[in-house]
Amino acid sequence: MIKLYGYPRSRSTRVVWMLEELGTDYEFIKIELLEGAGQAEDYLKIHADGKVPAIDDDGFVLTESAAIVTYLGDKYPASKLVPEPKTQQRARYDEWCFFVLSELEQPLWTVGKHTFVFPEEKRVPGILEVAHWEFLKACKVLEKNLAGKEFALGDDFSAIDILIAHTLRWADAFGLPTGSRVLDAYRERMSARPSLDKVINREAEAG
Length: 207
Ligand SMILES: N[C@@H](CCC(=O)N[C@@H](CS)C(=O)NCC(=O)O)C(=O)O
Prior knowledge:
The protein is 55% helix and 9% strand.
Protein backbone atom coordinates (compact mmCIF):
# COMPACT_ATOMS: atom_id res chain seq x y z
CA MET A 1 0.00 0.00 0.00
CA ILE A 2 1.24 3.49 -0.83
CA LYS A 3 2.48 5.46 2.17
CA LEU A 4 1.91 9.20 2.02
CA TYR A 5 3.89 11.45 4.35
CA GLY A 6 1.88 14.59 4.78
CA TYR A 7 0.42 17.32 6.88
CA PRO A 8 -3.18 18.55 6.74
CA ARG A 9 -3.93 21.59 4.54
CA SER A 10 -0.43 21.64 3.05
CA ARG A 11 0.83 20.71 -0.42
CA SER A 12 0.36 17.06 0.57
CA THR A 13 -3.38 17.77 0.29
CA ARG A 14 -2.86 17.65 -3.48
CA VAL A 15 -1.71 14.05 -3.18
CA VAL A 16 -4.53 13.11 -0.78
CA TRP A 17 -6.97 14.59 -3.31
CA MET A 18 -5.42 12.58 -6.16
CA LEU A 19 -5.52 9.36 -4.12
CA GLU A 20 -9.16 9.98 -3.22
CA GLU A 21 -10.01 10.63 -6.89
CA LEU A 22 -8.27 7.35 -7.75
CA GLY A 23 -10.14 5.56 -4.96
CA THR A 24 -7.05 3.59 -4.01
CA ASP A 25 -6.00 2.59 -0.50
CA TYR A 26 -3.15 4.46 1.11
CA GLU A 27 -1.64 5.05 4.50
CA PHE A 28 -1.46 8.69 5.63
CA ILE A 29 1.52 9.29 7.89
CA LYS A 30 1.33 12.70 9.51
CA ILE A 31 4.66 14.48 9.85
CA GLU A 32 4.34 16.90 12.72
CA LEU A 33 5.98 19.77 10.87
CA LEU A 34 5.20 22.34 13.54
CA GLU A 35 7.01 20.20 16.11
CA GLY A 36 10.10 19.81 13.93
CA ALA A 37 9.42 16.19 12.88
CA GLY A 38 10.40 17.05 9.30
CA GLN A 39 13.98 17.44 10.47
CA ALA A 40 14.10 14.09 12.28
CA GLU A 41 16.98 11.93 11.04
CA ASP A 42 14.66 9.14 9.83
CA TYR A 43 12.40 11.49 7.90
CA LEU A 44 15.35 13.27 6.26
CA LYS A 45 16.16 9.89 4.65
CA ILE A 46 12.76 10.11 2.91
CA HIS A 47 12.74 13.83 2.09
CA ALA A 48 16.18 15.45 2.00
CA ASP A 49 14.69 18.83 2.95
CA GLY A 50 12.27 17.49 5.58
CA LYS A 51 9.18 18.68 3.69
CA VAL A 52 5.87 17.13 2.71
CA PRO A 53 4.59 15.52 0.60
CA ALA A 54 6.61 12.38 0.01
CA ILE A 55 5.37 8.95 -0.94
CA ASP A 56 6.81 5.49 -0.54
CA ASP A 57 5.36 3.12 -3.11
CA ASP A 58 6.76 -0.28 -2.26
CA GLY A 59 10.24 1.16 -1.65
CA PHE A 60 10.11 3.77 -4.41
CA VAL A 61 10.32 7.14 -2.66
CA LEU A 62 9.18 10.27 -4.49
CA THR A 63 8.87 13.89 -3.43
CA GLU A 64 7.41 17.05 -5.04
CA SER A 65 3.62 17.29 -5.10
CA ALA A 66 3.21 17.67 -8.89
CA ALA A 67 5.63 14.83 -9.63
CA ILE A 68 3.78 12.56 -7.21
CA VAL A 69 0.34 13.39 -8.61
CA THR A 70 1.63 12.75 -12.16
CA TYR A 71 3.31 9.49 -11.11
CA LEU A 72 0.05 8.28 -9.58
CA GLY A 73 -1.87 9.17 -12.74
CA ASP A 74 0.63 7.18 -14.81
CA LYS A 75 0.45 4.28 -12.37
CA TYR A 76 -3.33 4.09 -12.75
CA PRO A 77 -3.84 4.93 -16.47
CA ALA A 78 -7.43 3.65 -16.51
CA SER A 79 -8.36 6.62 -14.32
CA LYS A 80 -7.45 8.95 -17.21
CA LEU A 81 -6.55 11.57 -14.63
CA VAL A 82 -3.21 12.24 -16.35
CA PRO A 83 -2.94 12.17 -20.16
CA GLU A 84 -0.86 9.39 -21.68
CA PRO A 85 2.88 10.10 -21.99
CA LYS A 86 4.24 11.22 -25.38
CA THR A 87 0.97 12.84 -26.48
CA GLN A 88 0.18 16.50 -27.16
CA GLN A 89 -2.42 16.40 -24.39
CA ARG A 90 0.35 15.30 -22.00
CA ALA A 91 2.49 18.21 -23.16
CA ARG A 92 -0.47 20.50 -22.46
CA TYR A 93 -0.82 18.93 -19.00
CA ASP A 94 2.91 19.49 -18.34
CA GLU A 95 2.59 23.09 -19.52
CA TRP A 96 -0.10 23.67 -16.91
CA CYS A 97 1.93 21.91 -14.19
CA PHE A 98 4.95 24.14 -14.76
CA PHE A 99 2.75 27.22 -14.92
CA VAL A 100 1.04 26.41 -11.62
CA LEU A 101 4.30 25.77 -9.80
CA SER A 102 6.45 28.53 -11.23
CA GLU A 103 3.97 31.34 -11.98
CA LEU A 104 0.86 30.89 -9.84
CA GLU A 105 2.10 29.25 -6.66
CA GLN A 106 5.38 31.12 -6.43
CA PRO A 107 4.05 34.64 -5.64
CA LEU A 108 1.34 33.15 -3.43
CA TRP A 109 3.92 31.25 -1.42
CA THR A 110 6.02 34.41 -1.18
CA VAL A 111 3.05 36.02 0.57
CA GLY A 112 2.72 32.97 2.85
CA LYS A 113 6.43 32.95 3.71
CA HIS A 114 6.52 36.63 4.51
CA THR A 115 3.34 36.62 6.61
CA PHE A 116 3.31 33.41 8.65
CA VAL A 117 5.93 30.87 7.53
CA PHE A 118 9.28 32.56 8.03
CA PRO A 119 10.50 33.65 11.46
CA GLU A 120 9.57 37.31 11.98
CA GLU A 121 13.12 38.61 11.59
CA LYS A 122 13.31 37.10 8.06
CA ARG A 123 10.03 38.63 6.82
CA VAL A 124 10.17 41.52 4.35
CA PRO A 125 6.81 43.35 4.49
CA GLY A 126 7.54 45.36 1.32
CA ILE A 127 7.54 42.18 -0.75
CA LEU A 128 3.83 41.52 -0.12
CA GLU A 129 2.55 44.14 -2.52
CA VAL A 130 4.75 43.04 -5.40
CA ALA A 131 3.94 39.36 -4.74
CA HIS A 132 0.21 40.07 -4.84
CA TRP A 133 0.68 42.02 -8.09
CA GLU A 134 2.58 39.06 -9.56
CA PHE A 135 -0.11 36.66 -8.36
CA LEU A 136 -2.82 38.76 -10.06
CA LYS A 137 -0.80 38.74 -13.30
CA ALA A 138 -0.68 34.93 -13.18
CA CYS A 139 -4.42 34.87 -12.40
CA LYS A 140 -5.10 36.87 -15.57
CA VAL A 141 -3.26 34.29 -17.65
CA LEU A 142 -5.11 31.48 -15.94
CA GLU A 143 -8.42 33.25 -16.51
CA LYS A 144 -7.77 33.52 -20.25
CA ASN A 145 -7.00 29.82 -20.41
CA LEU A 146 -9.96 28.69 -18.32
CA ALA A 147 -12.61 30.97 -19.80
CA GLY A 148 -15.46 28.94 -21.30
CA LYS A 149 -14.02 25.65 -20.08
CA GLU A 150 -15.41 23.28 -17.49
CA PHE A 151 -11.96 21.88 -16.69
CA ALA A 152 -8.40 22.95 -17.46
CA LEU A 153 -7.89 20.35 -20.19
CA GLY A 154 -11.38 20.75 -21.65
CA ASP A 155 -14.33 18.48 -20.98
CA ASP A 156 -12.83 16.11 -18.42
CA PHE A 157 -11.52 16.53 -14.91
CA SER A 158 -7.79 15.75 -14.65
CA ALA A 159 -4.98 15.90 -12.12
CA ILE A 160 -4.08 19.40 -13.26
CA ASP A 161 -7.43 20.59 -11.92
CA ILE A 162 -6.29 19.32 -8.51
CA LEU A 163 -3.09 21.37 -8.68
CA ILE A 164 -4.81 24.53 -9.91
CA ALA A 165 -7.82 24.30 -7.60
CA HIS A 166 -5.69 23.50 -4.58
CA THR A 167 -3.55 26.56 -5.27
CA LEU A 168 -6.61 28.77 -5.72
CA ARG A 169 -8.10 27.40 -2.49
CA TRP A 170 -4.84 28.27 -0.76
CA ALA A 171 -5.04 31.83 -2.09
CA ASP A 172 -8.56 32.06 -0.72
CA ALA A 173 -7.40 30.77 2.66
CA PHE A 174 -4.52 33.28 2.64
CA GLY A 175 -7.09 36.06 2.03
CA LEU A 176 -5.66 36.84 -1.41
CA PRO A 177 -8.41 37.62 -3.94
CA THR A 178 -7.93 36.44 -7.52
CA GLY A 179 -9.85 39.41 -8.90
CA SER A 180 -11.53 37.00 -11.33
CA ARG A 181 -15.09 35.68 -11.39
CA VAL A 182 -14.01 32.95 -13.80
CA LEU A 183 -11.36 31.69 -11.38
CA ASP A 184 -13.58 31.98 -8.32
CA ALA A 185 -16.35 30.02 -10.08
CA TYR A 186 -13.83 27.39 -11.23
CA ARG A 187 -12.44 27.06 -7.68
CA GLU A 188 -15.95 26.57 -6.30
CA ARG A 189 -16.81 24.00 -9.00
CA MET A 190 -13.71 21.96 -8.20
CA SER A 191 -14.29 22.35 -4.47
CA ALA A 192 -17.74 20.79 -4.87
CA ARG A 193 -16.26 17.46 -5.97
CA PRO A 194 -17.27 14.63 -3.60
CA SER A 195 -13.61 13.56 -3.38
CA LEU A 196 -12.78 16.78 -1.56
CA ASP A 197 -15.08 15.87 1.35
CA LYS A 198 -13.13 12.61 1.64
CA VAL A 199 -9.86 14.58 1.62
CA ILE A 200 -11.07 16.82 4.42
CA ASN A 201 -12.23 13.80 6.47
CA ARG A 202 -9.01 11.89 5.91
CA GLU A 203 -6.89 14.85 6.99
CA ALA A 204 -9.14 15.46 10.00
CA GLU A 205 -8.70 11.82 11.06
CA ALA A 206 -4.93 12.38 11.01
CA GLY A 207 -5.45 15.12 13.60
N1 LIG B 1 7.79 22.11 -4.14
C1 LIG B 1 7.44 21.28 -3.03
C2 LIG B 1 7.23 22.14 -1.79
C3 LIG B 1 7.05 21.31 -0.54
C4 LIG B 1 6.85 22.21 0.68
O1 LIG B 1 7.40 23.30 0.77
N2 LIG B 1 6.08 21.69 1.65
C5 LIG B 1 5.83 22.45 2.86
C6 LIG B 1 4.38 22.24 3.31
S1 LIG B 1 3.26 22.93 2.15
C7 LIG B 1 6.71 21.90 3.97
O2 LIG B 1 6.84 20.71 4.11
N3 LIG B 1 7.30 22.79 4.76
C8 LIG B 1 8.11 22.40 5.88
C9 LIG B 1 9.47 23.04 5.85
O3 LIG B 1 9.69 23.95 5.04
O4 LIG B 1 10.30 22.61 6.63
C10 LIG B 1 6.19 20.46 -3.39
O5 LIG B 1 5.35 20.95 -4.18
O6 LIG B 1 6.05 19.31 -2.93
